[in-house]
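Title: Prediction job returns without error message
Component: structure pipeline
Severity: low
Priority: P3
Assignee: unassigned

Description:
Job completed but the reporter wants confirmation the result is attached to the right record. Sequence as submitted:
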Amino acid sequence: MNRSTMMGLVTGSLLGATIGIYAVSNMNPRERKKALKQTKKMLTRATTNMMGMGIF
């Protein structure tokens, strides 16, 4: 990857994480629990798919 692509990925990741933290901080406890459960499920699926593709 070239430098500008890598910088774009890093900047986008930081921006996404910041917006995500802000959104979670403004949720009530029930919404927060539901969002965390969905995120955990999504990460598990993504990891399983990457393992199947031989990325890890």
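Comment from assignee: result matches the submitted record. Residues 29-53 form the longest helix (25 residues).
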